[in-house]
Structures are given as structure tokens and as C-alpha cells.
TrEMBL record:
The lineage of its organism: Bacteria, Pseudomonadati, Bacteroidota, Cytophagia, Cytophagales. It holds the Pfam family NADHdh. Belongs to the complex I subunit 1 family. HAMAP family: NDH1_NuoH. GO terms for molecular function: NADH dehydrogenase activity; oxidoreductase activity, acting on NAD(P)H, quinone or similar compound as acceptor; quinone binding. Keywords: Cell membrane, Membrane, NAD, Oxidoreductase, Quinone, Translocase, Transmembrane, Transmembrane helix, Ubiquinone. The chain crosses the membrane at residues 6-29, 77-99, 119-141, 162-181, 251-275, 295-318, 330-358. NCBIfam families: PRK06076.1-2 (NF004741). It catalyses: a quinone + NADH + 5 H(+)(in) = a quinol + NAD(+) + 4 H(+)(out). This is NADH-quinone oxidoreductase subunit H. GO terms for biological process: aerobic respiration.
Amino acid sequence: MTLETLGWQGLVILVVFGLSLLIATYCTYAERVIAAFLQDRVGPDRAGPFGLAQPLADAVKMFTKEEFFPAGANRALFIFGPCLAMITALMSSAVIPFGNFLQFGSTVVHLQGIEINVGMLYVFGIVSLGVYGIMIGGWASNNKFSLLGAIRAASQNISYELAMGLALIAVLMMSGTLSLREITLQQSVAGEWHFWNVVKQPLGFIIFIVCAFAETNRTPFDLPECETELVGGYHTEYSSMKLGLYLFAEYINVFVASAVMSVLYFGGFNFPFQYELRDWLVSSRGMELVTAQNIITILGAVGVFLKIFAFIFFFMWVRWTLPRFRYDQLMRLGWTILIPLAIFNILLTGGLITFGVIK
């Protein structure tokens, strides 16, 4: 890799990092607007036009609130918990391919922070570490409600990671690779949507999206921060920007989960008729092949973000539509329904591959 290419990739990493923070920031605004729409009321409309400056006002509030440390809390771990949750959330977006590649002369820039051949394993390894930030924060708060919330988060993540991992094995059986970029490119045959993995793995996708709600602690699986039972859950004792880090980490995890679902099941940066459009630009408009490919790459990047935003909207729609599960219902769903379904999906996928029905 040349120094120029390395510089371009460093710029891509900074852009991905900035986009993750920006999208998480405005997810707080979108949450309020969608909630207001579904409840037939006026949402944020005071801070800036249409309330667009509301996330900035929230950030100022978080930064200027009083720092509070509970009596008997472990100060070092109390600070480290939200930092770990935020760091792991940001790290998980590094391997997601947000586009194919751009070519400038002899320089090729992939719209992906880093490309590793175990990208899928990397994402789930980092996501698994995120629960330690919740556990550490809940334990270090010296509050029984915070500790109960942390225990719930740990058991919930362990339970649903099993079903999620088993659902991904079926995708791995078809793709033969752990690289998120390779999985995306395999869904680009003729650029048609019926080559996307959601068509081949509908049951696996349903299992994955249910587990994604549990992994991100979103309603109806937000038991770790159940206000009616645990005051505020694992972040009951947090204030100021430490609380902000926990809240931001949740929204970044929603963004990453949406991006992973878009890549694994909905073709990522692929969109219908992309190759026909590229050939038309070359043959009818007289464009160079490189320029036409760059345009397709940009359109693909726009497409993948539209898919991500659609999933984020779905996360928020479910939050303001469905009630919260009881804890026993949550665990029963994970262990007695999702895990057996995921194992059945693996066996079914193996049989279909063996008999040549899917490839």
C-alpha cells in the first residue's frame, strides 16, 4: 500500500468515525420526531428551524451538567464504564463497507475503514466487549438497581448472541467467507435484488433482527434500563457527559446493527440495475469507464445509507409501538424459540446447499 493510498484510507476512517457520531447525534432528534408523529403531537420545534438544533442543545446540557459520583462508588471504574461502551461502539463500524471503491488515476480508495478477511468475526467480537462497559458501570455505581440492570444486560447479551451467531453461520455457509466486503460483492450478481441474502435467508434475517433489538437494548428488549422496575437501570447514578456516552453508545450500536443487516442481508452498496446504468453511462453518454464506476459507487453509498436509515426508523417505530417484554418472556424467547429456530435454519440451509437449490 502506497503512502498516498494510506492517506486516503486514513481520511475514510475519519469520515466513518465522524458519520457515526453525527448519525448517533441526530438519531436523538429522529427519535423525538418519530415519537411525536406516532403519538399525534408536536415534536421538538424550539431549538433552531424545525428543532434541528435540539441535539446541539442536548450536547451543551450534557457537557454543562454537574459531575456526580455516588458515595462508595469505584471512581476509576465509574468513569471507565461509559468510555468502554462508547469506544467499542465506534470501533465496530471500522470494517463495514459503505461503498465499493473510487478510482482517481492509479489510486483506488475503498469506502471502508479497514478490510480484514474476518470482518464479521471482528464486529461481533467488538460488540461482545460492549456489554463489559455496562457491567462495569452498573457494578461501580454501588447501587442495587444499577447492578440488577447490569446483570440483566449481561445475561440478555449472552442469550441472544448465541441465536445471532447461529443465524450468521447460515450466511457463512453460503458465502464461504467472513469478509463483509466479499459477502456484499457476492450479492451483486447482475445487480438484482433477488440475489440478496434476505431472499435466500428469510428465517435467518428474522432471527437476526430480533436479536439485534436485544443486543442494542432497544424496546421491547430494554430490560437493562427498565424505568418502571429499576429507576433507570445500569446508568441510574450517571449524570453529565458520562450519561451522554451511554446514550450515544446505544444509538451508535443501532446504527452499526442497521449497517450490518444492510450488508449481510440487503446487498449493502448494491442496487438494482447498477451494471446496466454503468454501461449506459459509458455507451450513451460517452463517459470513461472509471468515471461511470465512480458514479455507481457514489450512488451505492447513498443506497446503503438509505437502507441503514430505513432500519433505524424501524428500530424507533417498534420502540413507540410495542410494550416491553417481561424478563422471563425475554429469556424464554431467546433460549426456547430463537436458538432452536437458528439451528433448524442451519440444517435447512445445509440441505438446500447439498441439493443445489441455493448456492
